[in-house]
């Protein structure tokens, strides 16, 4: 990127030769920057915090996030030194959700605190040339027909950046969302959670996991040999959401909910939040888009928040790159909003349901007992595991009906002339994949006709292979985010197969 600075006072402005501004350097912003860079888009991340926060509300990565990271060749780094577990909780009930029942190569949850996830994604973004600016706060955003401008306050003064697009990954109180005039309807908070990473003098009597009393709930887990994460959930007392949590308030809450404060002292992090749940009425306004918590917020139960935001980034990155490069088919960028709204609505709904079950009111006890009994049934347990892990997200995509259309492409074992491989290996560069499994000439002809007419054929890769797991399948068209955009069986007629494939390629990968 070239840089042109003018003036030398503290209000000097300068512009960069860049294409996308990402506001917010959390996990979602870092992943989006990497997705843009592997698609050869100039991107800069502006993060107001000068240093990465060492504290994390979020602890884990679920199966769909792990599958997606694997398709970018990043999963190995995330698994190094990290613990995984096969079970998770739903609404703090006594019966655990069994992730090992998932139909996934990664049927588990990975312990990766949000600050660690952010660091690893930042490293991967920098590796491919993304620019990260910490201590640079965006104070205003405006757009016109040709681009977007952001006013920024940095360590050396103020400046203005201009780019083709801007994406707000700046959290639930998103300045970008407000500047774009995007609505954020939802429900206010009625439950207060108080969180502290503290030393417990009475750690021998500390509970493990979620415990319920008549006065509320307590969540307690060890973080290391010294500190515990303790969280109380108060279903009655309201508090000012903008007020800072103190150790005194946390210990008072522990005594109220648990009957004692466990000798909590020396906090290294204190935080309070509510069960408010909101979702943006649209994720795009002109050249401004939003993702992650800027698009949806909910109570952090079930470990779904970060995972939901990461899938926003995987869905948006390649589409935004197509718009920047000028080959995006009509409606491609708008499909980001259309596809990602429904998964967020479902997460907001299930977190609200969990809050209702968590309420210690005795009137709720029979419902909890009934739900716990239901969770002992394999089908119910599997349903909840799939819901929490996001593996059943399927997009309603146009095209000839097929059992795989819109689904996430599985880890198929493929045999090519070069040897054996897995499907995820062909998606590491962030391009699409046309998988020819039957040697049908129509597949190759449709690809050759398309590739001969485009200026940047690197957006789609054609691979001929055999696959014993899908003997009846003629081929798959897989988008860069891993979702199937076209599929046909071997018994499909020639004209039907070629027409469906040609239309799908043009719909998702353009014609110029």
TrEMBL record:
Listed GO MF terms: monooxygenase activity
What cofactors are annotated for this protein?
FAD
Q: Which residues form a coiled coil?
A: none
Q: This chain belongs to which protein, by name?
A: Rifampin monooxygenase
Keywords of the record: FAD, Flavoprotein, Monooxygenase, Oxidoreductase
Reply yes or no: does the keyword Hydrolase apply.
Answer: no
Q: Which domain of life is it from?
A: Bacteria
